[in-house]
Design goal:
This protein has 264 residues and is of the alpha/beta class. 48% of the residues lie in helices and 17% in strands. The longest helix is centred in the N-terminal third of the chain and has 20 residues.
Length: 264
């Protein structure tokens, strides 16, 4: 705690806007933990989610699980993980779950988006699955937004797990989604896939999903991690008349991610 406090104090004169964003995030998280109720979601396993979402997307998503490129990527991530990140700056829980990665891979393969936007990168687990799918599609680009934790080595390891062979389809924007997401979306014609995995407060999730939904092309897909903490995912799926809205129970951590398909 003392180290974090000292890092924050040192940040204020160098990056005052970033310091304000970090302080605001802490205040939001603590206030919501006391005053807002958690979301109430019925969640499904990965196979069921892929089957249900596949009907809305009009694609057999389960078929993509058998692709050798997916298995090779998962093996590569496991190997790199053991080599580099036993004592890294990110908490293990901040990384995307394997089931979330597979969901993103299958969805990306199915809808072949030209443009994907992601908030929250950490070591780049989910990013790698998306980029591998784009590579298999031979089209598309991933734009990521990430504000790493206050740690002397954090900036250097954001996205570290992403294989070099996939990085030509990746652009990283450093900062908070609060400041960067709106301008980024305005600079893009439209997006086919959006993945939220940054600050999981109701206010931030609702802001991100509203912006992304407005910028999303018909038939696009929105995926949000850690939806169980509040009602943001439920509200957006109900208010936007989504073709499909379903929640996945993640495999390796006590969390859920949601998927919404925009009407085409």
């Amino acid at each position: 705690m003392i180290a974090k406090a000292l890092n924050f104090v040192a940040l204020v004169p160098r990056r005052p806007t970033e310091a304000l964003d970090r302080l605001s995030a802490v205040v939001q998280s603590r206030w919501e933990a006391r005053h807002l109720r958690r979301g109430q979601y019925h969640s499904y396993g990965l196979d069921d989610v892929l089957q249900i979402a596949g009907k809305a997307i009009k694609s057999n998503l389960c078929d993509f699980l058998a692709e050798p490129q997916l298995g090779e990527l998962e093996n590569a991530i496991e190997a790199r993980w053991k080599s580099f990140f036993l004592d890294g700056p990110f908490q293990m829980a901040h990384n995307g779950d394997i089931s979330l990665g597979r969901l993103c891979y299958c969805t990306t393969r199915a809808i072949c988006p030209e443009t994907v936007v992601e908030t929250g990168v950490c070591y780049g687990v989910t990013s790698s699955f998306i980029l591998q799918a784009l590579q298999c599609n031979a089209k598309g680009h991933l734009y990521s937004i990430d504000l790493p934790p206050l740690h002397h080595s954090a900036d250097g390891v954001v996205g570290r797990l992403i294989p070099e062979s996939l990085r030509n389809r990746w652009t990283l924007h450093r900062g908070s989604s609060r400041r960067l997401l709106g301008p980024l979306l305005k600079s893009l014609d439209s997006i086919g896939l959006f993945v939220h995995d940054s600050l999981h407060t109701y206010r931030n999730m609702k802001m991100e999903m509203n912006l992304a939904w407005s910028a999303m092309c018909p038939g696009g897909v929105l995926i949000a991690d850690d939806v169980q903490g509040n009602r943001a995912f439920q509200e957006i799926s109900e208010s936007e008349n989504a073709t499909c809205a379903i929640v996945l129970a993640e495999e390796r951590k006590a969390a859920s991610c949601g998927l919404i398909v925009k009407p085409s």
